[in-house]
TrEMBL record:
Keywords: Hydrolase, Signal. It comes from Mucilaginibacter myungsuensis. Residues 1-19 form the signal peptide. GO terms for biological process: acylglycerol catabolic process. One of its GO terms (molecular function) is monoacylglycerol lipase activity. It holds the Pfam family Abhydrolase_1. This is Alpha/beta hydrolase. Residues 64-309 form the AB hydrolase-1 domain.
Length: 325
């Protein structure tokens, strides 16, 4: 598995030409590991497209996974998870949410309810009635909302270091999308790498650089102001639409995968050092959340931070496959 993971990283490094390239805000010049398709949608009078990969296994077991990415990512960082699931017979659907990755970047009211509805339409269009739902980070908030809205469509809910385990509104000062937009416009490769190093991994490795190159490459695009505006709007969505009060209402089998060294707080830069120390403590938030979700299981990764499926890929995949029900 380690060799496979390394080959995946080399694939990105070789195909994206990161160091000097400008990336389009829809990542047209980033080659994804599998063919990308598009679902046509219409919202608020706008025609938009939702990008997705649909990976069918060579020896299908008749079951499907859908993977929901985090806020600073797209479907590209799920490659090793897709390969592992596909090798075990699962069909894997990997959407880029509207506003992210290769999908459209419209100026609309962003909501987890709306995103859940679009993903349900995607599954309906593909003829998929029931699926395993794996959500990471922001994708965990979306996966939770999806499970609350469409419990009959969820075989099992799998949450990898989801954000939203606490209500950020109760301790993070309000920041408008307009103010956040000004911050997003300052994005550079250096600022992205500094954030990723401090927030996502216990120890930085060169193979993580491709995440920075994709995350910061769009800042060189002439269309970056649109990308930055959408990023600010989805920041506002996360802040204003908590799911933590509804964990008790989840009615599907659920597993939480928690990297205990995670200290993610949406809006952390707005906090004092004292407040930073009080919140984002996943070693405590993980078990507390598991107690709220009826019948849930908790899997702990003591030495991982925010992205276990990248940082401790082999351990995460082994645990994921062993906890599928």
């Amino acid at each position: 598995m380690r060799l496979r993971h390394l080959l995946t990283l080399l694939f990105f490094i070789s195909t994206c030409g990161f160091a000097q390239d400008t990336l389009s805000i829809n990542l047209e010049n980033v080659k994804y590991p599998y063919p990308v398709h598009f679902l046509s949608l219409n919202t608020e009078g706008q025609d938009i497209r939702m990008a997705f990969m649909d990976v069918k296994p060579s020896s299908p077991n008749g079951k499907t996974f859908i993977l929901f990415h985090g806020k600073n990512f797209g479907g590209y960082y799920w490659t090793n998870v897709i390969k592992a699931l596909s090798a075990n017979g699962y069909r894997v659907i990997v959407p880029d949410q509207i506003g992210f990755g290769k999908s459209s970047k419209p100026f609309i009211h962003y909501s987890f309810h709306g995103m859940a509805r679009w993903n349900k339409k995607l599954l309906d269009t593909l003829g998929i009635g029931k699926t395993y739902v794996l959500g990471h980070s922001m994708g965990g908030m979306l996966a939770t909302r999806f499970a609350l809205m469409y419990p009959a469509a969820v075989q099992q809910l799998l949450l990898e270091n989801p954000i939203g385990l606490e209500d950020y509104r109760t301790f993070v000062p309000y920041r408008s999308a307009e103010d956040q937009y000004k911050t997003e416009l300052k994005t550079t490769a250096e600022s992205v790498k500094t954030y990723y190093q401090g927030s996502y991994f216990t120890q930085w490795k060169p193979e993580y650089d491709y995440l920075v190159e994709i995350g910061s490459g769009v800042a060189k695009s002439s269309d970056f102001p649109r990308y930055a505006k959408v990023a600010a709007m989805t920041f506002e969505m996360i802040y204003e639409q908590p799911v933590c009060y509804e964990f008790v209402d989840i009615k599907v089998p659920t597993v939480l995968f928690i990297g205990q060294k995670d200290n993610t707080i949406v809006g952390k830069a707005l906090l004092s050092e004292v407040e930073k120390a009080r919140h984002g403590r996943y070693a405590e938030l993980g078990p507390a959340t598991a107690k709220k979700i009826p019948g849930s299981q908790l899997v702990i990764f003591p030495q991982a931070m925010h992205i276990p499926h990248v940082e401790i890929a082999d351990e995460f995949l082994k645990s994921l496959l062993s906890n599928i029900r």
